[in-house]
């Protein structure tokens, strides 16, 4: 069956085993066992710390009983004061008893709940497994959720999803009017090259690495989605996490080829080509947009260098391994016994160094390079929001100009004295007046959303970068400490040469 | 702008290095050779001008064969090569291991990088450029240190050798206060590189093919041939490893510079850079210790092999002279000449064998001691750098976490 989204017959895979060691002995604390409880042990930081105050976005589910519950239960790690001061009309309802008796009846209880569960919802993506055979085979991942939120059917559950499902989720979210202005996290890129390699059916290290890379990227993607207050409330997101059998996503063509950023840039170009240019009364948007563009450029530059680092590190690994063998041979040749022994020991130390380099390379890649890749795409998404605001403005302007035309037409009809057509004209005018009002409101709303989103994004970004860099440095630290041990063990051997 | 860069490059090519100031522990891949106070040689400084390096060779001596007790002369790399070649071509020294000639100073790598840096200046931030420049200067300095070191060792090997230290050309090299290049040219014409060509075409087959009468030499031959190929291999691979390390160091500089211009909380970014810059220094030290050690002994072993070759040749000559004597006796013609020739060949062979044995034995000892010293220093340096890294990283992590 030819699929429109021939994403991936992600097939031949490795086992159900944990996507842990892409390189041997990688010590990444995050990837663990299958029990949901363990899966989330490290996830605390990744969990949403949705600011209670930030949630002013209109949700699709005004009728959803749980919407209010969500708002009120969302934690705000940054301080207790925010909790005590519900900001906005929505919160008022939290104090009235509701039929959905899931709401805590007092503030104290609310705080207790928060103290108990320091996260609202955590997700993890694990266990890539090959499903099916041949060209139609694909990889299914286990998506596990742990949550305290009442809107979900249970507290802990999991489903199986394939890559196109994730893309499909993005597609659904990105076209929602109600989410316009929101920074919707972009999904990982499709990869024809990667998939082709895997399709050939190799169990080789590069395929293993590819799958691990994808799994980790899908996980980060989902984590970002659920930590976004508006997205979390979206029924499509809930369905994605909860529903046993998800209908196959078919509209992922837009995300083919060079993927997400290409799509954004194309849309951007279209906006720029529109004739009516906006007169920005508020320079905040212009300035911010410029900042975002600059930052994206810098990150790209950085990404290139980090890629180079990863490659050089891998080269170093190879060179060190080869050198270690050569040194061992030299040791065998050496006729002085003590020196021969020392040479062999040195060869072993170099072997251990190679392993350290391998782990460092994994760290370089999975912690650093991927972080940069994610944010380059996220900044693209931010740009997308600005574009959406532009389009909203344009739509408003166009409506205004249409309204104007209708009024002129009405005036003409008055002159020409055609009463029945006049009636229609009046109706149209009313309709368009309503539209103009609506579009203006939309534009204002989207402006507010974009502002809020950008501020939230910047906070999250700073946090994310900080935590990843700390992780990176900690990995380096560990590596250096082990290095010390290796050389300290060698030193007496060197001294023993006589 | 272009002019500026050009002159800057010129500037870096005229670097004065005061060798004595530089870390003394990195001084020699061989054992401390400057023991004998009767003849002390060192290279206290050197000047790098475009392609040429001018070494200042400083001698302190109590020997009356020299005109002054303390003096210095400027010498070029070619002068060292001249000295080496004349020693090799001296038949009296056939039974000695002639210390390997120092390799030509090679500034190609840093020079190429400097060129690239100049071209890429426009695309870098000021900070990135400054850092890269610093690292480049450090690399220049490292190459410099290496070449001075290797030239110095060559002279010190000679000065500590009982026979070679008395060589007339060696004395000229140390003392002659005019430009040696004129003498060099004359010398070349005189000798015609005869022996050198002979050694150059040394065929391993000859060495392994000759029937060995002496167990010691038999063992040495086997050992040296095998060891040479292994150490050559190790040297090449060590070089590759060091190069990869340097590449990583360069990457880190670019990364830290870009991060600096990105990060809001810049304090920490600065700390990060220094951590990563250590990578560059580790690469340098590793290079000096391990790679240079291997490289040096590879050349030394080649020199030992050359000795074996000369002895094998002498043995072949002796065997030929025996055959000639037999023939002469058969023909009853020219017997006294043949006898004399045979006696001379035997004498030469014995002399080579005797001194060769001494040389090879002391060579073994020297090698073992040198490896020990360098391995210890290398391990200590690795530990030192890693401990520095650890401290820096811990500080950095603390800072980030506390923010």
TrEMBL record, chain A:
Record's compositionally biased regions (Polar residues): 14-26, 72-81, 93-108
Which superkingdom?
Eukaryota
Q: Where is the PX domain?
A: 119-248
Q: Where is this region: Disordered?
A: 1-117
A GO cellular component annotation here is: Golgi apparatus
Q: Where in the cell is it found?
A: Cell projection, Lamellipodium; Early endosome membrane; Golgi apparatus, trans-Golgi network membrane
Q: How does it sit in the membrane?
A: Peripheral membrane protein
For this UniProt record, the keywords arranged alphabetically read as follows: Acetylation, Cell projection, Endosome, Golgi apparatus, Lipid-binding, Membrane, Phosphoprotein, Protein transport, Transport
Q: Which InterPro entries match?
A: AH/BAR_dom_sf, PX_dom, PX_dom_sf, Sorting_nexin_N, Vps5_C
Please list the residue ranges that the record marks as compositionally biased, kind Acidic residues.
Answer: 1-11, 35-46
Pfam families from the UniProt entry: PX, Sorting_nexin, Vps5
- What's an example GO BP annotation here? early endosome to Golgi transport
Q: Which GO terms describe its molecular function?
A: phosphatidylinositol binding
PANTHER family (UniProt xref):
SORTING NEXIN (PTHR10555), SORTING NEXIN-1 (PTHR10555:SF129)
Which family is this protein grouped under? Belongs to the sorting nexin family.
Name the record gives this protein: Sorting nexin-1
Organism ancestry: Eukaryota, Metazoa, Chordata, Craniata, Vertebrata
TrEMBL record, chain B:
Instruction: Look up the domain of life of the source.
Output: Eukaryota
Q: Does the keyword Zinc apply?
A: no
Q: Its GO biological process terms?
A: pinocytosis; protein transport; retrograde transport, endosome to Golgi
One annotated GO molecular function is: phosphatidylinositol binding
InterPro entries from the entry? AH/BAR_dom_sf, PX_dom, PX_dom_sf, SNX5/SNX6/SNX32, Vps5_C
Give Gene Ontology CC terms.
Answer: cytosol; endosome
Q: Which UniProt keywords apply?
A: Protein transport, Transport
Indicate whether Protein transport appears among the record's keywords.
yes
Under PROSITE patterns, the record lists: PX (PS50195)
Q: Where in this chain does the record put each PX domain?
A: 33-180
Which Pfam families does the annotation name?
PX, Vps5
What family name appears in the similarity comment?
Belongs to the sorting nexin family.
Function per UniProt: Involved in several stages of intracellular trafficking.
The protein's name in its UniProt record: Sorting nexin
